[in-house]
Amino acid sequence: MIDRTHPLPVRRQCQLLNLARSTAYYQPPPVSEATRALMRRIDELHLQYPFAGARMLRDLLRHEGQTVGRRHVATLMRRMGIEALYRKPSLSRRQPGYQIYPYLLRDLTISRPNQVWAADITYIPLRRGILLPLKLRPPSRHGSERTEEVARWQQKQANRLNGGRPNGAWRWS
Hints:
By secondary structure, the protein is mainly alpha-helical. Among the domains are: 1-26, no CATH class; 33-80; 118-161. The chain is 40% helix and 8% strand. Strands 1-4 form a two-stranded antiparallel sheet. Strands 2-3 form a two-stranded antiparallel ribbon. Strand 2 and strand 3 form a beta hairpin. It is extended. It starts with 9 loop residues before the first helix and ends in a 12-residue tail after the last helix.
């Protein structure tokens, strides 16, 4: 948003955007390698135990020999966008202002090839981040067979990208 090479001074650009000038000059501190390794391990544990909150993850990390506090784990979880999965109140109630989209295929007769397509997105953790592959496919009457085919494809992609190791053997380095 703020361009330092622009002829308009940074001070004026900040005024026009209603930003404090310190925001234009702020450089976030780099994340240390130890913190990055801890974040990777928290991500691995979250994939194994999606219901685990900060306290349980802290206990799992301490069991592995890492001394870390609950608040630090909670901060890293918040930074990574990780949240424990648990039953929350009133999830089945419709929220005011939430738009319900119609199911467009309800009365549609699929009569020719390539008339309707479906998409499948999966989450694959890698050494440096994540991969979200998208697979477009035509829908099938044999839903369970198609689901197994998609699962096999995702597993093959994960193994190929992970150096041939099976799904449970991620190597973070």
